[in-house]
Amino acid sequence: MKRTPLIIGGIAGVAILWSGAWYAGKVLYVEPRADAAVEQLRSGATFFSFDKRSVTGFPFGYDVAYEDVAISDASTLWRWTAPLIRLETGLADAGEMKVTMSDASVLVIEAPLLGGAADGSPMVFNIASEGLEATLTGNATDNSAVIEADNVSVTQKEGASIVTGGEANLSSLKATIETQPEEGAYLADADAASLTFAYRLSTDGVNESFNRSELTGVKIDLETKALSGGDLGAIIANDGLAKVTVSTDGYKGEATSAGGPSTPPVSVTHEGGKTAAELSISDGRARYAGNAQDVEMNVETQALGPFPGVAFVMDGFEMSMEMPLKQADEAQPYAIEVELDDLAIDETVWAAFDPQKKLDRSAMQLEVNITGDARLLTDFQGAAMTQSPIDLETFEIAEFELEALGASVDAQGGFEIAGDASRSSGEMEVVVEGGLALLDNLSAAGLIPVEALGAYQGLIAQFTVRDGDDDKLTTKIESRRGQVSINGLVVSQ
Length: 493
Description:
This protein is of the alpha+beta class. The protein has 5 helices and 28 strands. The chain has helices spanning 3-43, 232-237, 347-353, 435-444, 450-463, and strands spanning 46-49, 52-56, 61-73, 78-90, 97-101, 104-109, 123-130, 133-138, 143-156, 163-180, 185-201, 209-225, 241-248, 250-257, 266-272, 275-282, 285-301, 309-324, 332-345, 364-376, 390-392, 394-404, 407-416, 425-433, 465-466, 472-480, 483-486, 489-492.
């Protein structure tokens, strides 16, 4: 029985010590860290303000709540406000912190940020979220965050603005971010089940365009090295890395334009399957690449005349471009590639200019591969350019293949164009199969006047070499210091 007072006293002592430790941690660590974090934000390009801060969570952790929060940048051209931001951490969480915020917040974007007048009306967006929270871990040199949300929606409030009716919705979001600020290293990947967005745009207050798109299976990856203060110029100067890739499982959308004094109203619908795009800067070079599958597009115009617009489907599209971003002692390689696979024009479009079906309607194919060397006149550092910063020294068509209208074109060749491009040197060979038959079909379709057919045939005979009786025409173009010849016939000096 004598142990009871001791046990009770021990429990009371532990409670007192626990409470004292909790309050000591609050006063000596949590509140100073919270104040330091706010001051760090304020010392940079971001302004952070709040009406009230409180620290609760006793006895198992700390809950820092900021009420009536406002965040903006130094330009004050945008401002985000929220009734509450809460940071929670448990005593045993070892540096892990959960961040939650109000389900509703407001973003204000001033007109000049979108190219409007200084006294123009701002855009105001209401932001609503479901299940949005972030978990932060890390230390002074390495940090990570996991952000999840069931749904995030952004809706523009009514009012005069360059952009109106803006809205966006993101569902089933999960994003992971890892940072090493001292190294300028950032890794981020985000996945979302769907992303939809829409807006109306009017730069003059009279003519208006509308866009709406829906993406499914969205994935975004970001990686940087040697990024300093958000300056891409530091990446270029230090041979660092900045890479963004975006992919989707599918997309669809629509767009309309009211037109203007010299352009008719236009409406566009489009959809497709898997898509991917990459934009990167690495080792002083830039690369852009993109591809899309199962593309469908329909463009309709209200222009007078027989041509209503264009509609097509395409099995696939790929393109890439690579070029240098830094000056070097020697010229550096560049490359451009484009591929269209099975591009088929809708019958309604064919009927507008070939109702008698004289032309071959087979799906079109295109492959282009252009390479060469270029010399940079100045580094790309984001500064305004008064002239082209790049000078092409060589231009090579490694591959050009086009199949359309029942004919095919193949071309290969290259030219040295350093200095005065009008005095280039090089050669190119172009081979056309089915060209004569195509010429006859164009005439039969009424696209070439009958009286002009002979003149076109004469030009073909003069500047091409025919392979026997086959409809295969070859043209060899040579340039020697600006003297141009076609199949040996000098046409310019």
